[in-house]
Amino acid sequence: MSGHLPIIYVRGYAGSEGAVEATVNMPYYGFNLGSTQVRTGPEGEPDFFIFESPLVRLMKDHGYADIFARVDDDGAVRLLNREEERYGEQGFPLRSLWIYRYYDRSSERVGDGDRDNLEILGHNLGLLLEFVLRETGAQQVHLVAHSMGGLVCRSLIQRILQERAAERVARLFTYATPHRGIHFRRGLGFLTSVRDLLGLNDSDTFGPVRMRQYLGFPEDWDERRLHEIGDHFPVDRVFSLIGTNHTDYNLARLAVGPGSDGLVQIDNAYVHGSSRAFVYRSHSGPLGIVNSEEGYQNLQRFLFGDTSVKIELEGLRLQDHLRSNEDLRFILVETTVLIRGEEVVMTDQREEHGSALTVGARALEEGHETLFRTYLARSGRPSNRERYSHFQIRLRLLPHYVSERRVLRDRHYFGEHLFQETLTIGIRDTDGGEGRLVRARWTAMDTDLPDAGTRHPRSDDIRFELKSRHLTAGALVLRVRDESSPGH
After folding, report:
1. In this structure, are 190 and 315 located in the same domain?
2. Residue 487, pLDDT score
3. Domain CATH code at residue 102
4. What percent of the chain is helix, strand and coil (3-state, nearest 5)?
5. What is the rounded distance in angstroms from the CA atom of residue 51 to the CA atom of residue 287?
6. Contact 310, 370 (CB under 8 A)
7. In which domain, by residue range, is 70 found?
8. Residue 190's pLDDT is what?
9. Is the dihedral of CA 50, 52, 53, 54 positive or negative?
């Protein structure tokens, strides 16, 4: 597994001075916020679902200790809650959660009232990182960031650490980070230009000119490629969590519109090539992406999981009468992944949320597309005696008829599908045999799974053929690997 290394949490952007002061007033910079929802219980009665917060869960589930830190003007790291007295000569714990309180310096109450630009934030994060490594004795740290915090982490990785990044950072997890900037909906593009021209409260941080600067790209770098992390850091060590609820955020949602989390567009919210998950959450607020069970489950499994499973769709070929229909230009791929024993989905891509994957109708005949990479953890199983980790993939393929760049709505029926099935899978721990035992079936109930698993050689992909009257070929392919060492 990647390991219980120190975690540095980097929060997002505070726009106004009032937002800065409110941030400074929160000890954990918002990482402590939880949520309470009312759901329908099994008998139809109201059922309270309480999520304490990712911070509390890391403490309760994984034994992490909290440490508050900021970096002063002279580059010295200052601890803010008598941590030296608390740990004394025993040293700082490896399982420590460090809150990078960078807005303290911008506060008129506890700082000088001046904002640090993102280059300085990235530089100071590097100083804190080196301090954490030295004081804990760890070889690497995990970086966990919300919104703009992910850009601060990328500035550190891409512009400052560069070739040293892979040695010092084990994994990077970002919630709702605008990796390709923040843009307003069609017809309101002038607002983006005004924002970047005026740069009020460093709001131009989310425009292409400033992004090229603090991410270390050349001035002529294509802004469509701003979400690339470069060659210095393995992209499989990055996880991008993407929100798809554009209705539950502040007035910014009106300027950004559907296909977003209310602030960041879905297409801009991930590092190119990274693992990613889609959850029906907004950018922030009471039902926001950070204070969600979905976010936490993806976070803990990515950081501490024992096994990763990459889920790919390949070799998809339509029946000849559909292939010859020139108006059937695209296929929408809806994917939902659930872990047994959890009450939430790990990822949920749907047409109605604007997050379904769009692929060319014939693009996958010879190629493949990664749908999701899930991370499995032995500690998350309902029973420690069970050596299989179980999960489900709910897959639906929808036709998308387009002519002259317009959707042909007279050809489209809601719920019409080319394929719709649920694959239930159990993947067993490695046991020294020649390959891994897997039991699986296209079924909605895991009680219908075979009692014994089929052994798949390590060199083989685990394939599950798609059978539908609309398809002549196609397969879900699982690529399983152990996550057995830090920074794997």
Report:
1. no
2. 45
3. 3.40.50.1820
4. 25, 30, 40
5. 10
6. yes
7. 7-304
8. 62
9. negative
The alpha carbon of 182 is separated from its chain's Cα centroid by a whole number of angstroms, namely 17
Residue 128 burial by Cβ neighbours in a 10 Å radius (0-12, 13-18, 19+):
buried
CA distances to 7, 30, 309, 379 from 392, rounded to whole Å, are: 30, 32, 12, 18
Q: Which two tokens stand for residue 294?
A: 């979905």
277 DSSP 8-state letter:
E
Last residue of a domain, one of 239, 270, 304: 304
Find, among 424, 193, 472, 456, the residue nearest to 323 by Cα.
472
Residue 350 has φ and ψ, to the nearest 5°, of -135, 150
Q: Does 488 have pLDDT greater than 50?
A: no
**In the listed set 256, 281, 304, which residue is the last one of a domain according to the structure?**
304
Residue 448's SS3 state is helix
Indicate whether 118 and 144 sit together in one domain. Answer: yes
Nearest in space to 397 (alpha carbons), one of 363, 420, 377, 380: 420
Residue 269 contacts residue 245 (beta carbons within 8 Å): no
- The answer to whether residues 373 and 473 belong to one domain is yes
The residue behind tokens 């950018």 is: 283
Q: Please say whether the beta carbons of 4 and 92 come within 8 A.
A: no
The contacts of residue 321 (CB under 8 Å, 6+ apart) are none
Residues 313, 318, 323: CA angle, nearest 5 degrees: 130
Judging by DSSP bridges, how do beta strands 471-482 and 307-318 pair with one another? Answer: antiparallel
Instruction: Tell me if 192 sits within 8 A of 207, measured CB to CB.
Output: yes
Q: What's the whole-number mean pLDDT along residues 391-416? A: 76
319 and 291 together in one domain: no
